[in-house]
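Curious: why these numbers?
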Amino acid sequence: MHASDLSRRTVLAGTAATAALVGLPSLQGRSQAMESAIGSAAAAPYEWRNVFIGGTGFVTGVVFHPAVKGLAYARTDMGGAYRWDDGAARWIPLLDWVSQADQNLLGVESLAIDPARPNRLYLALGTYSQTWADNGAFLRSDDRGATWTRTDLKVKLGSNEDGRGTGERLLLDPRDSDTLWLGTRHDGLLKSTDRGATWNTATGFPPKPSASGQGVTVLVAAERTVYAGWGDGDGSATATTLYSTTDGTTWVPVPGQPAGPAAKMPMRAAYDSRAKELYVTYANAPGPNGQSNGSVHKLATTTGTWTDVTPEKPAGFGYGGAAVDPQRTGTVVVSTNNRWSAGDTLFRTTDGGRTWTSLGDTAAIDVSETPYLKWGKAAPTFGWWIQMVAIDPFDSQHIVYGTGATLYGTRDLKNWAPQIRGLEETSVLFLISPPTGQAHLLSGSRDIGALYHDRLTVSPAGGLAANPLFTTAAGLAQAANKPSYVVRTGTGDNGNGAFSNDGGQTWAPFKSQPADAKEAPGPIATTADGGVLVWSFVHWDGTKHATQRSTDNGATWSVVSSFPAGATPVADPVDPKVLYAFDTATGKLFASTDKGLTFAARATGLPSGDAGYQLAAAPGRSGDLWLSTKGNGLFRSTNGGSSFAKVTSCQASFTLGFGAAAEGASYLSVYHVATVGGVTGVYRSDDAAKTWRRINDDQHQWGWIGQAITGDPRIPGMVYLATNGRGIQFGTPA
């Protein structure tokens, strides 16, 4: 057994997953020059899997199929849709084929199933509705999401915006399985009579909502009647927020409906077909933040009588999820949302809302499989941002609810644990694969800070990097010649910078930090020997502040006036006196030869004004720099940035990293998210970027992947890829 084989088995220990082989695309029809740049069509395929963290994002909806035991679907705000595999007890991703060009479609606004046809699944996709975002799309599948038929919409959807926990906004009409309804945020109610092939504005519905409103927040069927929640009410005593239709053409306000601040906006709805009662949860804001009032009401659909069944009168929170137990008349579960003081909970009734029990009060929560959910504390909480709850129609005690970080489930109403295997939706910003030590991967992400992975298929036992705990990572760097020394920066309540002397297992905060660190923490670099830190500061709104330097491990700091403000510092991996920075505003490469005390311009005339760029230094080689630019391709310098040459083998370069050299190769393997021969994908080069081999395929694209990539310095061929919504992917040659 080769040493690399042993290392590969060690880092993968604990896996029970089997990944599909990833083949390379055919080169048929491409020009000879294009084929030369891409490399041999016989390149080895790759296996791709998720590095296991466990959720880490907002699960906004789960729908159980009422006719097939064990069949369920989940949607997330920016990480795709999933189907539950009951035999394997894990979620199967359904949208990994979404390309970088279509990245806005990785967010799922809503999903719908056909109760009478279990193989049919419908998705409404669109992550953002701002002017800069692309329009949404509608997908339909006849094989439970294995393949799709796509219809591009003429409107924008917003699965990662306020109100993403409402719904469902997509509904199959109970009278006609070819008819679907889609509630939009800013374009009213849409209707399709051909299973989503075409869409038109529904006639007879209230006028188009305001630009800042929520539009249609929920659609639900009760027998042959369709109800639509309206999210643009003003909260007055006369506001109308719920409409219904019995013929699919005429929409009327539901008589006697609740109104006022506690019923300003319908959040969710669930129909008890046994009792003929419709339950509706309300809040005074779309959430998941900002709710301070709410209520729960039920409508007896045969008599038109409304009853207030609110479990607890809100004091600074609203209500979100609603689910009915189809096996037990009058059994309903609803969720609080934004109840930060006491913590969110689920309320359950078995008598139609006359009395309620808080399931969170007696819950025993086991997060041993995903320790990060302790958030640096001794024990986890019941969760927050609970805007969704679902009851298994075949098991009354199997309940799941989504939070801002995971999906919890129970089988006995008391013991809860994440039911999240296979579902990963982290937005990952930084990756380091250390050359030595137990960990093969360090990462920094939005929302969950930094993680230390010594096994890729197990969520880190230590949970999130703490002391201090960061909600979002802003920088991560390792001393090239002293890999036990690692530094990180980010957004936190108890400091914004930290260092580790054991490769990232344990941390200590910097003894002091510059004033700008609290509001504008940015990327950081450490010299090759770990003796000097250079910390850049960039506010979330783009404001750039003076960069600072420390020579005493963060005890004191001083301004580096010659450093280009807002740039990312990069240390030379060999010479501890040398650091670099690329100023995208001017297209200049700056370098320091005095350990970051001063910086001076070297190469000029490089691409400027390019928001997407990355400067990378090849490990083990002084002065070997690579510059990725989103709009202008790839550049390389072998003289410490004094000059750069254009790498002509690719057209666009998003992010680049290095790994152990292939057998017989004289240069490190270069891993690259790039456009080569007109195809954007993940590429590998074993000849210093003369030729490239695509190592992902069209079924493994994961939306936006231009954030970070690195090879493993100890395992030839192994690569780690950061995505914006699908966590960390790792690939190995099959």
Observations:
- The longest helix spans residues 3-11.
- The two ends are 17 Å apart (CA to CA).
